[in-house]
């Protein structure tokens, strides 16, 4: 059983996004008999950007530090739905492990593990795939987005959200912290819980989606504030990565698309570019957007960008240094993942036993009439 975790000192880098509330997106209350358990995942595809940091990772750290039972999965099975070089995938898995630790995930308190090492994820995916309709999957926006540019669409990309539901259900997770772009995937997991429970008897709690109320749910691209900051955007200046050198961060913030008004004012509708920068500023420092604008009176947007770049560099430098230090110890990172995987496996096995009994039956006493 996952222990209810002991209190621990807040990470030094605890940052100001804390003040943002978490909104429960599901209307159904978690049933009391299920212990509160948080599950989330992230694909090991390259460097983490500020969208991932504020939209997801930072939330996990916040929940972990307020004593919640948190499982963090490095979703390598999800990442192979698009072609990956095996060597690079292995390296990226360790890089993600280092990144999560540097961001404050404490692998002793939380369970940090590699998804593909727990084979029950794919087994449960098969069972859930058998109760999912194709129509339900075809309309999910992420599938549409990712398959758009492909001539031959891999089946994996299509069933990707079913695997995501399996991730969540296998640990009977009650809460799933993610950015806004994942909301519909979690909704599918909620639907599958209901279908499964109806068909096979009460087994899983409904997982609540935890999405922040504030701007961290969707950090925007620096090049096109109508879009989210994303790993897949071809323009590397569109995102601030945790591993960027200070010079790169400065350059990207300086080049961030704003508008022709020179004052610094906060109007996400009319001035989305500068509002995105102010949001990033606010998330890092905890200052309100009003206060930030007040302090920026007399600065033009160019001057304000220099101020913001200083803050971003100051906040990200220690994380970057930590990631670099940890990546010099791959054997240690591998050990961390193995330990996490063992703990995940223990939880998964108990759920999987229950699921197979319900779906296939296993008791010879139940056999009444073979013919
Ligand atoms: P991905 O990079 O798609 O693997 O996303 C990992 C996590 O980061 C998921 O919970 C996403 O919802 C979250 N995320 C990704 N991009 C953003 C963004 N621009 N703003 C907020 N959250 C994001
Ligand atoms: N699909 C998620 C993403 O791209 C990552 C993920 C995999 C996940 N499994 C999960 C998120 C389970 C939440 C719960 O961001």
Automatic annotation (TrEMBL):
Highest taxon in the source lineage: Eukaryota
Catalytic activity: tRNA(Trp) + L-tryptophan + ATP = L-tryptophyl-tRNA(Trp) + AMP + diphosphate + H(+)
GO CC terms: mitochondrial matrix
UniProt keyword Phosphoprotein, yes or no: no
Intracellular or extracellular location(s): Mitochondrion matrix
EC number: 6.1.1.2
Job of this protein: Catalyzes the attachment of tryptophan to tRNA(Trp) in a two-step reaction: tryptophan is first activated by ATP to form Trp-AMP and then transferred to the acceptor end of tRNA(Trp).
Name of this protein: Tryptophan--tRNA ligase, mitochondrial
Organism: Atta cephalotes
């Amino acid at each position: 059983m996952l222990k209810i975790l002991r209190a621990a000192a807040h990470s030094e880098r605890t940052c100001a996004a804390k003040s943002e509330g978490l909104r429960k997106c599901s209307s159904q209350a978690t049933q009391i008999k299920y212990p509160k358990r948080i599950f989330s995942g992230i694909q090991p595809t390259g460097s983490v950007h500020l969208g991932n940091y504020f939209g997801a990772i930072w939330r996990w750290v916040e929940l972990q530090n307020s004593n919640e039972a948190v499982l963090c999965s490095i979703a390598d099975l999800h990442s192979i739905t698009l072609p990956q070089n095996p060597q690079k995938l292995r390296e990226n898995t360790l890089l993600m492990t280092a990144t999560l630790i540097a961001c404050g995930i404490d692998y002793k308190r939380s369970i940090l593990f590699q998804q593909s090492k727990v084979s029950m994820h794919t087994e449960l995916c098969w069972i859930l795939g058998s109760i999912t309709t194709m129509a339900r999957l075809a309309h999910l926006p992420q599938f549409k987005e990712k398959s758009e540019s492909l001539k031959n669409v891999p089946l994996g990309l299509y069933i990707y959200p079913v695997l995501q539901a399996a991730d969540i259900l296998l640990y009977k997770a009650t809460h799933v912290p993610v950015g806004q772009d994942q909301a519909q995937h979690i909704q599918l997991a909620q639907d599958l819980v209901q279908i499964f429970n109806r068909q096979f008897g009460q087994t899983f709690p409904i997982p609540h989606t935890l999405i922040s109320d504030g701007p961290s749910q969707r950090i925007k691209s620096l090049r096109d504030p109508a879009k989210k900051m994303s790993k897949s955007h071809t323009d590397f200046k569109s995102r601030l990565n945790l591993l960027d050198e200070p010079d790169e961060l400065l350059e990207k913030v300086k080049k961030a698309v704003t508008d022709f008004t020179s004052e610094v004012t906060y109007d996400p509708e009319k001035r989305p570019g500068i509002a995105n920068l102010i949001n990033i500023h606010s998330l890092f420092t905890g200052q309100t957007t009003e206060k930030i604008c007040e302090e920026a009176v007399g600065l033009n947007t160019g001057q304000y960008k220099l101020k913001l770049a200083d803050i971003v560099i100051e906040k990200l430098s220690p994380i970057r240094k930590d990631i670099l230090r940890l990546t010099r110890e791959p054997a240690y990172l591998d050990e961390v993942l193995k330990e996490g995987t063992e703990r995940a496996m223990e939880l998964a096995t108990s759920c999987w036993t229950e699921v197979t009994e319900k779906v296939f039956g296993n008791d010879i006493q139940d056999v009444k009439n073979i013919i």
